[in-house]
Design a protein that fits this description.
With 373 residues, the protein is α/β, with parallel strands linked by helices. It has two domains: 213 residues, Rossmann fold, CATH 3.40.50.1480; 142 residues, Rossmann fold (3-Layer(aba) Sandwich), CATH 3.40.50. The protein is 42% helix and 15% strand. It has 13 helices and 13 strands. The chain has a seven-stranded parallel sheet, with helices on both faces. α6 links the parallel β5 and β6. α12 packs antiparallel against α13. The longest helix has 25 residues. The two termini are 27 Å apart.
Length: 373
């Protein structure tokens, strides 16, 4: 493990709960997370707080998993699994099945739990737990933690049977993290422009939430031609007209949902006389019809390879450009606040009696106050 960065914010969160540190041998954690270095530090601290490593079950997402990290967590006696991936099927479909499988395996392996904590990124694991709530161990408290806005949106209209800490909508995450992720993604977008020698790129950002609006601003400040399209007002036929009218060469999806379907891609291929580069800045491979492009295009088996289909180039296999399979995808300093929100929510979930809580709840104020400094 890399110990060169001291993680001062995580240390401050630990201090908040230092008087509650003891053995929690009957508490279990099932976590779906990006398997990167900062997350490793979080799992180590959770174990140090008192949950045995063998009680912490972790699985990653194929596009945001470092093989090096998987090996190290396994050697360190955490329960770790890495999913496979079929390029002919969308990530979301496969991930939903994987979450159900991992939940079944987890439940078959635990013994006499006093509490179960579900730590999720994207909401699919929490959905699997909620959908099968009647099959969960009886009279055992379950506490969830959700990291992403897409996960929050997936669950917000569901009838939830247990409490979920809403890290996704914490002001610390939205205000502090979004500009950093956008800056990091823009650096990789600029690398893509250089890699493909795109002359005078003309960029369309679709989706102007916290990430998309920051991406648009950063690229405009770097003197690229940029246009933005707000998902709240867009129509897909209008989007094609905009691509044609502005002679767009790069489309950046930041909506968290599909923005172009298969027939629309075929239409775009017919009307453009130059290459069009498709880049995701959201989650999974859902901004563009990635399986369809993979089927028709040329690509390698490498999960982060680009896919070329005539004049269309799907960057990073359709997965978020912020993930390339590295041990670090951003610096620990940039992501530590978000990790701190997850870590603090986990410690609160361990110690608190939450038997009367249900649905989304706020991250503990004392954790937020430490991380805002």
């Amino acid at each position: 493990m890399n110990d060169t960065y001291p993680y001062p914010l995580l240390g401050a969160v630990s201090q908040l709960y230092s008087d509650q540190k003891r053995s929690y041998d009957d508490v279990y954690v099932l976590a779906c997370q990006h398997l990167l270095e900062p997350q490793v530090k979080m799992f180590e601290l959770i174990s140090t707080f008192g949950i045995p490593k063998e009680n912490i079950h972790i699985f990653g997402k194929i596009y945001s998993t470092s093989n090096e990290i998987v090996s190290e967590l396994t050697r360190d006696n955490f329960k770790v699994s890495k999913p496979t991936f079929d390029p002919s099927v969308s990530f979301d479909v496969q991930h939903a099945e994987n979450c159900k499988h991992e939940l079944r395996m987890f439940l078959s392996s635990i013994k006499n739990p006093s509490k179960i904590i579900i730590l999720d990124d994207g909401g699919e694991l929490l959905k699997a737990v909620n959908d099968s709530f009647d099959s969960m161990p009886k009279n055992v408290p379950i506490v969830g933690i959700e990291q992403t806005s897409s996960g929050f949106r997936k669950l917000e209209h569901s009838t939830l049977h247990f409490p979920i800490f809403n890290v996704a909508r914490s002001a610390v995450k939205l205000i502090k993290e979004s500009p950093l992720i956008a800056e990091f993604g823009c650096n990789r977008i600029i690398d893509t422009v250089a890699q493909y020698a795109i002359s005078e790129p003309r960029i369309l950002v679709v989706g102007l939430g916290p990430i998309g609006s920051n991406v648009l601003s950063i690229l405009a400040d770097k003197n690229y031609f940029t246009a933005g399209y707000d998902i709240a007002h867009y129509d897909q036929s209008e989007l094609i007209d905009l691509i044609k009218k502005d002679n767009i060469s790069i489309v950046i999806g930041a909506t968290g949902q599909s923005i172009l379907n298969e027939s629309q891609l075929q239409e775009i291929k017919m009307i453009l006389d130059h290459d069009l580069y498709l880049i995701s800045m959201s989650s999974a491979d859902r901004e563009f019809p990635a399986p369809y492009i993979r089927k028709n295009g040329v690509h390698s088996a490498e999960i982060h390879a680009d896919v070329v289909w005539d004049s269309l180039v799907l960057i990073n296999n359709g997965f978020p450009i912020t993930f390339k399979g590295k041990r670090y995808e951003s610096t620990p300093q940039e992501i530590e606040r978000t990790i701190g929100l997850l870590y603090g929510s986990t410690l609160e979930a361990i110690i608190a009696d939450m038997s009367d809580a249900v649905g989304f709840i706020e991250v503990p104020l004392k954790v937020v106050e430490v991380l805002e400094k």
